[in-house]
TrEMBL record:
Fe cation binds at residues 126, 168, 172. Belongs to the polypeptide deformylase family. HAMAP family: Pep_deformylase (MF_00163). This is Peptide deformylase. It comes from the Bacteria. It is an enzyme of class 3 (hydrolase). It comes from Streptomyces marokkonensis. The active site is at 169. Keywords: Hydrolase, Iron, Metal-binding, Protein biosynthesis. Removes the formyl group from the N-terminal Met of newly synthesized proteins. Requires at least a dipeptide for an efficient rate of reaction. N-terminal L-methionine is a prerequisite for activity but the enzyme has broad specificity at other positions. The gene is def. Signal peptide: none annotated. Binds 1 Fe(2+) ion. Its EC number is 3.5.1.88. It catalyses: N-terminal N-formyl-L-methionyl-[peptide] + H2O = N-terminal L-methionyl-[peptide] + formate.
Length: 214
């Protein structure tokens, strides 16, 4: 059903969104915008407004804090996401998860495809599903194509934790939440995950909670 907000031109809606200083509000699971999919970006905002919107996404992601944020998570159905990961983790976690620092970057119209058949499963969370984590098996290596905020082509292979981040954020643009791909029996509150499943890998959780790993 179309709402009055839907009838407001996109650029005008984003101007309204950006009129408030500071981080944007993050949409929580259950809001239809997270399930509707997104419209490819094709200059709808113009360079100046796009730059302001990207800056707002960056501010919001960092304030949350998170390692990625997709436009639908702030209520905007455009195929745009941002990622950044300083990866402040212990060495054993870095080695087990392949988590290495990622600079801030903008993904415009991203699409990913698996490279090879390898899969990796780890606990994952989402800013739009606050308070919970679950184990998700994802492709261990992906090829990401699309553009950056300046229209320059992106064609890059990601492995380890960066591959997980780009899959998670690109899924948001297709109306998919990480819970759709998660092992249901692994679902844990942040507190339970911290108390019981803080190990670098989820093998112990799989045995105790009764789910399979790839």
């Amino acid at each position: 059903m179309e709402t009055p907000v839907d009838r407001v031109p996109l650029a005008e809606r984003i101007e309204q969104l950006l009129s408030v200083q500071g981080p944007l509000s993050i949409v929580a699971a259950g809001d239809p915008v997270l399930r509707a999919g997104t419209e490819p970006y094709d200059g709808q905002l113009g360079p100046a407004l796009l730059a302001r919107f990207v800056d707002a996404l960056r501010i919001t992601m960092r304030a949350a804090p998170g390692v990625g944020l997709a436009a639908p998570q702030v209520g905007v159905g455009l195929r745009i996401a941002v990622i950044e990961d300083p990866a402040p983790v212990p060495e054993e976690v870095r080695l087990a998860r392949g988590r290495v620092p990622q600079p801030f970057r903008v993904l415009v119209n991203p699409v990913y495809e698996p490279v090879g058949t390898g899969r990796a499963a780890f606990f994952e969370g989402c800013l739009s599903v606050p308070g919970y984590q679950a184990v998700v098996a994802r492709a261990a290596e992906v090829r990401l194509t699309g553009q950056d905020e300046h229209g320059r082509a992106l064609d890059e292979v990601f492995t380890g934790w960066p591959a997980r981040i780009v899959q998670h954020e690109t899924d948001h643009l297709d109306g998919t939440l990480y819970l759709d791909r998660a092992e249901p029996r692994s679902l844990s509150s942040h507190r339970a995950a911290l108390e019981h499943w803080s190990q670098p890998t989820p093998e112990r959780a799989a045995r105790a909670l009764g789910f399979d790993l790839p």
